[in-house]
Structures are given as C-alpha cells and as structure tokens.
Design goal:
The protein contains 33 helices and no strands. By secondary structure, the chain is mainly α. Among the domains are: 90 residues, Alpha Horseshoe (Serine Threonine Protein Phosphatase 5, Tetratricopeptide repeat); 84 residues, Tetratricopeptide repeat domain (Serine Threonine Protein Phosphatase 5, Tetratricopeptide repeat); 70 residues, Serine Threonine Protein Phosphatase 5, Tetratricopeptide repeat (Alpha Horseshoe), CATH 1.25.40.10; 95 residues. α5 runs antiparallel to α6, α19 runs parallel beside α21 and α25 runs antiparallel to α26. The longest helix has 17 residues.
Length: 626
Amino acid sequence: AFIRLMSVLLLTLASISCDKGKESNTPTPSTDGSDTGTSREDQPARTGIPTNTSDEPDAPMTTEDIAASEGPPMIDLSTLPANLRERIAKMQAACQEAPSNTSRLQALAAAYASIDMPAAAAACFDRAAEIIPGAFKYHYLSGMLHLQAGDTVAARRAFARAEGIDPNYARVHANLGLLAIKDDVAAASRQFEKACEADPTDEIAWWGRGRCAQLQDKHQDAIRHFQRALDIMPNYREAKEGAAESYRALGDETAARKALEGLETSVAASIDNDPVLTAFRRLALSDRELVDLAMRQANAGQRRRAIQMLGAMTMLGRDGFEIRHALGRLFLEDDQPTLAIEEFTRALTHDAKSGDTHARIASAFMAEGQRDLAEDHVVKALALAPDDAETLSIVATVKLAEDKTDEASALFDRAVRAAPDSPTVLYRAARCSIIQKKLDVARDQLERCIQSAPDYSEARYTLGIVYLQLGNQPGAESQWRHIVDAGAPYPQAYLSLAVLLGRDAGDSVSIEILRKGLATNPRSHALANALAWTLATSPDEKLRDASQAITIAEYACNLTQQRNYEYLDTLSVAHAAAGSYEEAAKTMAKAIDLAESGGATPTQLDEYRKRLDLFRSGRPFIRPKS
C-alpha cells in the first residue's frame, strides 16, 4: 500500500512496507569473454511501475554523469521523436546562451523530468540553487527529483536546505519524515508532527504520524491519526489500509473490515497540498507528447522504460486520461492485467465514454478470468464506438479469448474494412486467421501489416512462423533476419533464426546469432540458456566452451531464481562438459526435483534421469552429429 503514497517519494521508499523488486547482483555474462558489469532483474515488475530499474542496455543518465559535464546539464536526445528532440535542443541552447538564467534552467528541468530523466532535471535545479541560494523551490524540487532518480542522500540534503529556508512548508517536513521512517521512526515522527503544525490539512502528514505510531505498536494513536487523514480525504487509500492494519493488531476484525469499505474506489494522496510541485508539473510536456514518446519506446521493445516514464509522471500529479489509458495499454501488453484494470478504471473516471478504454479493460478482465465484467465492457465499447477499428479489433480479441471465433472473425472483418492499413488491426486479425487455420489469409494480413509498419517486430516474427508453416523457409529466414540485422530487442527472433539456420549451417552460425541476441537482449534468460546449451553440447569440439557455458548457464538460472528446471539441466550439462561430474550430478538432481513438481513431461524426466546416470558414471553429454 505504501507504494502508492506520494508522488516521487514512492519511487524510493516503497520498501518501508513492501518490496517492489531488488536490483540483481547477478553479473551479466559476456558472450565474448569481456566483463559487462552488473545486470538487473529480467523479470517484469509484477507489483507495479518499475522504479529505478531498466531492462535495456542504455540505462538513464545518473547524477554523477551529469555533475561531471560543463554548462547546463546535457543528455543524449538522439532516441527522442523529432519534435521533442528539436524542442529540448532549443532549451539546451537557450541555457548555454544564458547560463545564469534560472527560468531557462527550470524549463529545461521540466522537459527532462517529462522524458524520465530525473537526475538531469535535479542537476538543473542544483545549478539554479547555486545561482539563487535562497530560492526555496529550487532546493525543494531538487530533492524531489533526486529522490525520483534514486539518490536519497542528495534528496535528504536538498530537503534539509529547503527546510532551513522555509520551515513552514508542510510537505518538506513530510518528505523528510518519509525518508527517515525506515531507519529512525522517532525522527520521522518529529518531522510529521512539524508538517501537521505547518498545515493541519495535510493528509500525508497525518498518515505519517499514524504510520510512525503503528511502527511503535501504538495502535490506538495510529487509528486516531489515520482517521484525521480520512477526515481530510475520505477516499485516501493508504489511510484506510493503515487503520485496518491497526484494528487487526488490536484484534478487532469487524472494525478492520469496516475501515476497508470503499477501498476499491479509493485513491492515493493528492499533490494539491504541494503548490511548488503542482506549479512545476505545469511546465512539462503535454500528455499527448508523453504518450507518443512512451508508445515509441514500447514499440522499440522498451516497454518497461515506457511504463517507468509514464508512472513517474502520474506520481508527479499528471493524472489525465491519456496517460492513465496509455499505462493500462502498456501493463496489458506486459501481461499484467490487474494493473491494467487499475489504470483503465482511472482513465474511465476522466472519460467514461471512451469505447477504446472499455474494449481494453474488457480484454484485461478476460485475462483475469472475469468474463461477466469483460462482457459488460464489451457491450459498452460497441455501443460507444461501433465503427472504430481499434475498438472493434480489441473487442474481437476478447471474443476470440471466449472461443467465439466466428463472432471474432466478423468483428475483425469490420475492423479491417474500417482501417485497412492499421498495423495493429491487421496483426490482431492475422492472429484470428491463424487460429482458424487460414494461413494464406494470415500471411496476406501480416504482409500488409509490415508494409505499413516495417519495424513491427512481433508482426514480422509471426509472419516468419506462418511462412514456415506454409513451407516457405526462405521467407521465414528473411523475416527473422530482418529483426536480427536491425538489432531489434525481440529475443524470439534470434532464437528461431539460430535454430532454423543451425540445422544446415551448424552450431557456429547458431552461436554467432545467439551471441548477438544476448548482446542485444542482455536480460533474456531464454537466449542465455540457448547459448549455454549450444556451447556445452556441440558435437564440434572446437566450438565447445565449457567454462563460458557454465558462466552463461549460471546467469540464466540466477535470472529465474534457480527455479527453471530446463536451465538447471543446461547448467548440469555445462559442468559435465568441464569435467565437474559431481557438481553436474548435484545440479541435475535439483533439476529433476523441480521437474517432477513443475509439470515436466515424462519424456523430459526420462532424459534428465539418463543424463544423471551419465554424469554419475563420469561421462559428459554431447549432442550427436546431425
């Protein structure tokens, strides 16, 4: 619950009451013998918006990177859409022309914050604070942005400077309280008390006092403070949850249930009581520009970064329909339907007549198995947007999930007629055609799709599969090679091309493709496992590299928390290839235990047991020559 508490503070302090995911200490294995440093978790964040993580190789600039630069803080703009690139470049130039102009620095900070570069934005305010040391807002906003960038030390220093300038600004005390609550409850409590004195109507300050009392087992006091927060903001989610927790600690389950009434419609705290932050957010890019940038990132395979960027904006108070709707789309595409439903529900509070949103939330409810709710939204979607191609295609996808193939096909036909060149509509329609085994139709739809969107990796990959099913291996190779040659972050294409070409050209070609794939997609455990397997089991002794196979196989296993029996199988084979038969047998035994409880087929289990016997007899597993 604490995750949702307050704007960007949540990005760093969520660990107070729940764990949003930790940085992995797993080193990214080099596929060419070099050291690539430290990786981060490959698994998508299941509990919400990723905070200070990245699943792409080009991680955001850090405070240290920016501090070392000359003049106004500069960042690489090459990946931005042309209109944003030009706009921000002009802002950078304006700051260079007048390096002491704090208004220009503030505008540049707003632009950086809008594209999820909080460290660069914080550096702008640090410069502004050097120019005008007594300006409260520069220190305060520097603290907020350092916090969003994950630099709690710099944030605490900036907030302390702001507190010295204006000790009557409630939110600066609340922020310092939130920063202290994890390590020093007494200090946090004092800050929250100061916040309440400065502004008795600040619901976050009262929540903070309640949380501190809770951590000190003073549950009666906690309930009283949470109730003060609810008197100010009756639908304040965290206060409801906090009160319920304290009631339960006192053994009053009835009161706890009553405290949670209306939780499904409750919301996080507002930033309305934070006028400095509210004024800053108005300087940023438009919601439409932010959404366009996020979708561009997602289409390039950087969905988590897109979620992170838009999520940061909602925590800065950007709560409009377009951003919430876009977040719902991204969560749905990221196989997180529960979070998608939350975002679509928020979007519908802004525009209840959006047929597209009703269609997408129906799809999310279907993914959750809630067919009745899905059908309700399908009816609304078709009533509100009966001729909109996007809405029709999403509703058709829902019908497909309900096994109503004929209805889905008819809706897809309507959608394609309404938008014959829409890549997303054509792609969804092609998936329906594949299910209906109309491969020729699917091929035509996918070919039209990539004509409209040449970089649509998912469509190209699917077209390759269709070509292969139609007996057109060169066509499949062409589509998958296009993705690989473009360096697109789409792991399935590298895997499939490696298998396809490896059959005829041998392991050397497969290894080359898999190396490139892992370099492009360094968090793909599937690619890591495939490369490790090939290096460990190749019948060509010149290609076998047991040492590197072990390193890469361990990486794949660590990315999946040692819970994937197929990856443990690969690791055991790699140990055997290195002559470490005792370790190989030990790892294979663990793989078998997981496989027996994890749904492995009888054939797989038989293979694993044979390999275990092989390793116990001191022999490696080498694939036979094809």
